[in-house]
Structures are given as C-alpha cells and as structure tokens.
C-alpha cells in the first residue's frame, strides 16, 4: 500500500537503505520462531495492575536530541524491571543505530515478548533474526496480506502499523489482529495524539490496538487508554536520548503505573 503524500527526507532515506538491505538478504533460509504470546503478556500486565507498555530500545532516531550508548541488554532488563510487558528493538542501523545482534541478545536475556521494529518491504527481509512480534508498516508495502501471512508462517505475531482510517481498513483486510496506530505523521514527523483517538474507534473490538509515538507522561498514557489502547509503544520518553544517565527503569515504571497516579504527582 503506497500513498502519494510526500514523505519526510529522513523517512525516504530509511526506505532507500531498507531496499538495499532487502537485496542482501534474499538468499537466507526462512526463520522459524516459537513466539511468546503478546496477548498473554498484555493480560498478565493488567492482572498485575500494570499498564501494558512495549518499551523500546533504540540508540537514537531522526527525531532524537542525542544517543544512548548503553548496553542494549542492560536497557531492556531495566525496562522489564520497570514493568514493561514487552520490548521493542530497533534493528534498523542507519537512522536508529540498531542491529539484529542486539535483538538476539535482548531476547535471550528477557522473558517477555520482543518486537522486531524495522522497515521491512519484502518477505526476504523477515529472515534476519528471531523475534516474537514483527512490524509491518502498511504504507510501505504493496502486498500487505501476503506479508502478514508470511510472517505468521514463520511464527511471528505481525503488528501492522497504520496512520489513518484507510490504512486501518487495509490492515484489517489483510487479516491483521494486532494494529499499531502511529501518532507521528510521516510527512513532517510531527506527533498528534488525536490520531489514535480518531482512528481507534474504527477498529473492531477484537483487534488489539497499540498507541504508538507521542506518549511522554502518565496523563498521555491515561488519555490513550481512555481512547481504547490495549497497549502503548513508548521509546523516546523512556530512553530519554541525550539526557545522560536517565533511569530507564524508573521512566518505564512511571508509565506502567500511570493508572495508579494522579496528574499532580507526575507532571513533567
């Protein structure tokens, strides 16, 4: 599915690098994954009184003020200690500083589901590394249904990312059961939490909805949960790029316990 709307230059650069990496991965054998259940992880978090948060390990990003050179395994373990229901790992190397090797190390170290977050455009790009969830961005692929099927054949739980109602419709038609609604547009890279609030009501009740991007405070968490988010994917607010020795565990805990807090306790 492709839109005629112009993409931000950083996104265009990421996609060009993704196309080159896809060419290099065509001869790999298919992976076969025994995935950890993401729905079970959501249920366990809620049973424990935690907001289901997918905490994201990303050394940097086009919208970050700096980098976090910390060991990715130590970051992921701190996030799980802080209550994260799952971990997202960037494997895109050019703009996010990620790697498949970091994902493998993290998945070996934690016991929660791990999402591979990358810009995969073709089936061959799936056969890089084992993960429990696999990101597919609806706007960037032509055969979304085929890729959803291919991901499931490998054992992945596909998470289909959308930005508007048309992309949601395409995701549902492709058989998506886990849908991420990204609050960051791909044209100016600006964030608007109303995106989730607008698109989420169009999804069937049996689809697992994840609010992505722009969640920074406990108030944001409660806002997205009130709008129907089953889980939230949070990166920058936890990693806090360029802020030095920020406590990743405490950043995660502040958001996973957001529904227990008052606004006055956690203003930033």
TrEMBL record:
GO terms for molecular function: indole-3-glycerol-phosphate synthase activity; phosphoribosylanthranilate isomerase activity. Pathway: Amino-acid biosynthesis; L-tryptophan biosynthesis; L-tryptophan from chorismate: step 4/5. One of its GO terms (biological process) is L-tryptophan biosynthetic process. This is Indole-3-glycerol phosphate synthase. PROSITE patterns: IGPS. Residues 13-249 form the Indole-3-glycerol phosphate synthase domain. Its EC number is 4.1.1.48. HAMAP family: IGPS_A. Belongs to the TrpC family. It comes from the Archaea. It holds the Pfam family IGPS. Residues 243-268 are annotated as: Disordered. CDD domains: IGPS. Keywords: Amino-acid biosynthesis, Aromatic amino acid biosynthesis, Decarboxylase, Lyase, Tryptophan biosynthesis. It catalyses: 1-(2-carboxyphenylamino)-1-deoxy-D-ribulose 5-phosphate + H(+) = (1S,2R)-1-C-(indol-3-yl)glycerol 3-phosphate + CO2 + H2O.
């Amino acid at each position: 599915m492709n839109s005629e709307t112009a993409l931000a230059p950083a996104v265009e650069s990421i996609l060009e690098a993704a196309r080159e990496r896809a060419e290099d991965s065509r001869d790999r054998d298919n992976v076969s994954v025994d995935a950890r259940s993401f729905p079970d992880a959501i249920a366990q978090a809620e049973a424990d009184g935690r907001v289901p948060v997918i905490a994201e390990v990303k050394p940097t990003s086009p919208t970050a003020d700096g980098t976090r050179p910390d060991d990715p395994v130590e970051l992921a373990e701190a996030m799980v200690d802080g209550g994260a229901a799952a971990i997202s790992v960037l494997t895109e190397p050019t703009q996010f500083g990620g790697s498949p090797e970091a994902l493998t190390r993290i998945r070996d170290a934690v016991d929660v589901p791990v999402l591979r977050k990358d810009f995969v455009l073709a089936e061959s790009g799936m056969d890089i590394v084992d993960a429990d969830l696999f990101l597919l961005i609806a706007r960037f692929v032509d055969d979304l249904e085929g890729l959803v099927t291919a991901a499931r054949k490998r054992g992945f739980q596909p998470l289909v990312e959308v930005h508007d109602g048309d992309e949601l419709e395409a995701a549902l038609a492709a058989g998506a059961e886990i849908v991420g609604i990204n609050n960051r547009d791909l044209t100016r890279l600006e964030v608007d939490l109303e995106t989730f609030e607008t698109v989420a009501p169009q999804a069937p009740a049996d689809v697992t909805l994840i609010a992505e991007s722009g969640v920074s405070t406990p108030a944001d968490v409660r806002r997205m949960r009130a709008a129907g988010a089953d889980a939230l994917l949070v990166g920058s607010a936890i990693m806090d790029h360029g802020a030095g020795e920020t406590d990743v565990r405490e950043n995660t805990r502040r958001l996973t316990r957001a529904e227990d807090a008052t606004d006055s306790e956690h203003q930033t």
